[in-house]
Amino acid sequence: MVEDPAMTDVRKSTFAHRLSPDQIGAQPAHHPIIIVGAGPVGLTAALDLATKGRRSVVIDRKANLSDGSRAICWSKRTLEVMDRLGVARALLARGVTWRTGKVFFDTRAIYEFDLLPESDHRMPAFINLQQYYFEHACIEAAANTGLIDVRWQEEVQGLDITNDGVVLTIATPDGVYRLAADWVIAADGARSSMRRLMGLGFEGRVFQDQFLICDIKMRMERPIERWFWFDPPFNRGRSALLHAQADDVWRLDFQVGDEADRNEEVKPENVARRVRAMLGEDVDFTFEWISLYRFQSRRLRRFRHGRVFFVGDAAHQMSPFGARGGNSGVEDADNLVWKLDLVMRGLAPERLLDSYDAERIPAADENLLNTTRSTDFIAPKSAASRMFRDGVLALAETEPFARRLVNSGRLSTAACYDASPLNGPDGFAADECVQARPGAAALDTPVDGGWLLRRLGGGFSGVWFRPDGGIPEIVAHVEAALARRAVPVNSLAIASREAIGVRYGAECRPAYYLFRPDAHVAARWRHPVPEAVAAALDRAIAIS
Amino acid sequence: MPLQRNANSKDPDGLYAAIIAAHAGLSDADSAALNARLVLLLANHIGDESVLREALSVARKSISK
Questions:
Q1: Which of A3, A9, A192, A506 has its CA 20 to 30 A from that of A29?
Q2: Spatial strand order in the sheet of A239-244
Q3: ipTM above 0.90?
Q4: Which homologous superfamily is A205-296 in?
Q5: pTM for the complete prediction?
């Protein structure tokens, strides 16, 4: 086959250490924000800060992109965030889109699911794309902003927390230097140096069962679907997964048990035997990446530590079944950056930053709960648990209720911040249009030849959804009240027919929504009152 | 009323997790005993013998397959 040179280059590219002027002075140079870690989450934070006009320095100990595919499934919500940051087009162009999953028990197909059964969504439910391509797209976008200074081969070696900032000691191939920052975002992954240097430990469970992950390159005519096997003939008593990625790379995942010999399992000849047992003796493939892992289900007790914020795997680690690691990290960054920006601009009190914990810790717990349940179903921990699991699988062929219990990973969807202190009133009746309740992420819908999320942009928005086309006078009073606040609010009136009306409960009656900069619903009303909407805006930035 | 064969709970994963958690730390024999008692309790709760017979039949068929 003909290789696209751009594709092979991405993985081979190495980034030299560049001696920064910061490294020459006697006093530590000062930067408002330093991000530790140039993975998908750190880069998302840097790009989001750049949309607010903010500079950041990103340091990373590596000299290259992610070595293996690692995170491969990017959710609709992640794609929506990346669209706001101007990167979604590159991700969609390279990624493979999928929405169908199939589950097999022994040799029988027992269950099939469609992740996005309704139309009128701009982004697909998921794309699969190797982590190094995701990072590559972000790095190219970062260079275009002119605001992001990525420093490769630099590792945090020490830190001093002062009253008004943090001083990092950084080791580089050209010696050690120090950098001062007002705020630090620790996005340095599962083996976070920042976490270790601050003496912070994870709380939670480590599972004993081992999983062998490998990426292979092969030309194979098969549908772009997620296939999951329980107890297949080629991995008896255990599970396996097959998933497509870009440029004919496929992710294979084999449960190998807790007794398996680590060194033996990862030998290419042994992995090749597994691959041929799964895909046929005549399959023609090459290895891209082989790794063995155990599930973790753990998080930091708190994600904010004064002027240091932990995001992504540095804050929480979970089983990969459900694609909740990378996607929840992107949501962490999306949640944090607008708050940090408003506090730095003096438009919101510093306590707004505590809501990062109040919102993202419950989100992490939900992700941990879901991934732990999937893990318990995929690798039952007791004879009783296995008997129930096998019972569900046996019944699933004929019983619809049992299909709903088959758990090969509950795939990542946007978190809803139900218990957030930032949420304002819900003026809807109980159980009415719950998908757009305060705390929920806005559902994208077509509007006036465009899309709602694009219209919302990256700031606060007050939206009058009107099925009949009229704009009552009170809306002008609401807008006037909001205009008296320091935080800018984008006012929109949108005709709410069809999909948009249904998604926001405004197909028959009008409604007014206040959206946050991360496109979560802050509050909503049937009959907005200027004072109430202005108070909800204050609440959403922790003023009251 | 016939046996409900479609999902009948708002949180099926939570329901399943509660059952598995109830077995934590039990020996295989005690797990089997717990299951028997659970079936008796739920059978009494359902009350309707025709529903129970239908459930027994579906379960039994799935065993002998």
A1: A192
A2: A108-114, A100-105, A226-230, A239-244, A249-255, A203-217, A286-299, A316-317
A3: yes
A4: D-Amino Acid Oxidase, subunit A, domain 2 (3.30.9.10)
A5: 0.95
